[in-house]
Task: inverse folding
């Protein structure tokens, strides 16, 4: 199974400041047809998860452009250019290259 | 409006069975891979199973293989998860989610399954 490891697990951020979450996979998640099978989700308090970034760097519909995804092979990053209060929640990376599909442990973003 | 509504959760004894359903609307159900993902209380997300558009391809996490069966009815735009030989560690909120591919794009609100005597 592909193991996904996120860091940090807790991320206190001042509003207006940037934030960054790292995700590493135990093996490459590059798909042979030319994309990274790495996705990012956020689960806000009391809500279902929502897709933020799919296939490495594509923002999902309705996601603000202050969210960006980057990286390749085994090392990926989710960046928030300026954190807002509404960004509080748990952020997960997930690989969709092969089954079992696997998630990272989650990173809890909180507002200072 | 796209909707995914899970139902069928509840309290079940260890060793028992339960069938979860996910009723969908607002999109062409038969065009999408569909997932079940679960979340134990206070824990992270765990992918459970996925089913291909025509219902032929099915894949499971090892911990549920042989106990859970994912199925779909494209005529009714519905997804199911038949769970048997339930264990305490299966206690979780179960979400159904829509593809487009092997990554879930849209999620339902979840249904809670509690396995306890």
Result:
């Amino acid at each position: 199974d592909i193991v996904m490891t996120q860091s940090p697990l807790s991320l206190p951020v001042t509003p207006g400041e940037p934030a960054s979450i790292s995700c590493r996979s135990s093996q490459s998640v590059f798909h042979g047809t030319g994309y990274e099978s790495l996705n990012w989700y956020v689960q806000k308090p009391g809500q279902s998860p929502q897709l933020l970034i799919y296939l490495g760097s594509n923002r999902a519909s309705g996601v603000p452009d202050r969210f960006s995804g980057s990286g390749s092979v085994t090392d990926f990053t989710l960046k928030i250019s300026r954190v807002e209060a509404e960004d509080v929640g748990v952020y997960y990376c997930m690989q969709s290259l092969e089954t079992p599909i696997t998630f990272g442990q989650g990173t809890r973003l909180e507002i200072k | 409006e796209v909707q995914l509504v899970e139902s069928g959760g509840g309290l079940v004894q260890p060793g028992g069975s339960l069938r979860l359903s996910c009723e969908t609307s607002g999109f062409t159900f038969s065009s999408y891979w569909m997932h079940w993902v679960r979340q134990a209380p206070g824990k992270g997300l765990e992918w459970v199973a996925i089913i291909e558009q025509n219902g032929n391809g099915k894949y499971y996490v090892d911990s549920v293989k042989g106990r859970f069966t994912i199925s779909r009815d494209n005529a009714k735009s519905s997804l199911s998860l038949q769970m048997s030989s339930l264990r305490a560690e299966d206690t979780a909120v179960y979400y159904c989610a829509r593809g487009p591919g092997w990554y879930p794009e849209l999620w339902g609100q979840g249904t809670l399954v509690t396995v306890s005597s």
User: Anything to note?
Assistant: Chain B has a mean pLDDT of 97. The longest strand of chain B covers residues 92-100. Residues 9 and 111 of chain B are 5 Å apart (CA to CA). DSSP finds no helices and eleven strands in chain B.
